[in-house]
Amino acid sequence: MARELVYTGFITLDGSVDSPGGAVEGHPGGGWVFDTEFVEDAFALKGEELADTTALLFGRRSYQAFAPFWRESEDHAAYRDLPKFVVSTTLADDDLVDGWGETIILRSLDDVRALTQTDGGAIFVHGSAELARHLGEADLIDRYNLLMFPYLLPGGKNLFGDASTDRSGAHVDRRTLSLRESEAYSNGVVKLVYDVRR
After folding, report:
1. Angle at 62 between CA 96 and CA 153, to 5 degrees
2. pLDDT along the chain (198 residues), means of 10
3. Domain 5-196 belongs in CATH node 3.40.430.10
4. What is the pLDDT of residue 62?
5. Which long-range contacts (CB under 8 A, 24 or more apart) does 34-39 make?
6. How far, in Å, CA of 133 to CA of 110, rounded?
7. How far are the Cα atoms of 23, 34, 89, 124, 147 from residue 53, in angstroms, in the given order?
8. What are the residue boundaries of the structural domains of the chain, listed by start?
9. φ and ψ at residue 85, rounded to 5 degrees
10. For residue 149, what is the enclosing H or E element?
C-alpha cells in the first residue's frame, strides 16, 4: 500500500502561502498568521499532525529555513528522530543540518514517487510551496491539510499555481477533492482537510 503524502500549510483565501510569518520572508504583506487573533482551537490540527507524521518532505528553501529552527524547538521535538527528505537538484550532503535525524536528498519527482511506494506511514510536506505545486500537478499529493486565513495576498506564491500547464508544458487537468473535515473559528480561520479523489 502506498504511503500517504500530505501537504499541510497556512493559506490565504486567494490560495497564497507566501510569507505567513513576516515580511522578512519575502512578501511585503507577510506576517498574516501572527496578525490574526490567536485562538488555540484553530491550531489543533497542527498537534494532530504531530501524531500522524512518520516522515517529513521539504523543498530546499523550506528545509533550509525550518531545519535549524525546528531542530532546537521543543514544539517540534517529535520530528527530531523522524526521517526527512529534501527535494533538490542543487543541495549537497554537506549542506544538511547536523543533529536533526536522518535526512536524504531526493533529486526528482520520480524519486518522490518511489518514496511513496515504500513501507511506512504518512509523509508530511510543510511550507515548500513550489514543491507542493509540482507534486500536486504530478498527482502525488493525497491530502491537503489547510488552515485558511481571512486575507487576500495579491502577488503571493500560490499553492495551486495560476497556469493550466505544468513546468514541462503538459496540460494540467482539473483535480477533484473530497472534504474530509472542516471547522470555522471565531478569528476567521477555517480548517479544511481535503482528500484528493482519483
Report:
1. 170
2. 92 94 91 96 93 94 92 89 95 93 96 96 94 93 98 92 66 87 98 96
3. yes
4. 92
5. 36/149, 36/150, 36/187, 36/188, 36/189, 37/186, 37/187, 38/187, 39/185, 39/186, 39/187, 39/189
6. 15
7. 29, 25, 25, 6, 17
8. 5-196
9. -130, 140
10. strand 143-149
Predicted pLDDT at 196: 96
Contact partners, residue 113, CB within 8 Å, separation at least 6: 138, 140
Select from 184, 129, 110 the least CA-distant residue to 9.
129
Partners of residue 8 on adjacent β-strands: 126, 145
Contact of 80 with 71, CB cutoff 8 Å: yes
Query: 0.85 cut: is pTM over it?
Result: yes
Phi, psi values for residue 130, rounded to 5°: -65, -45
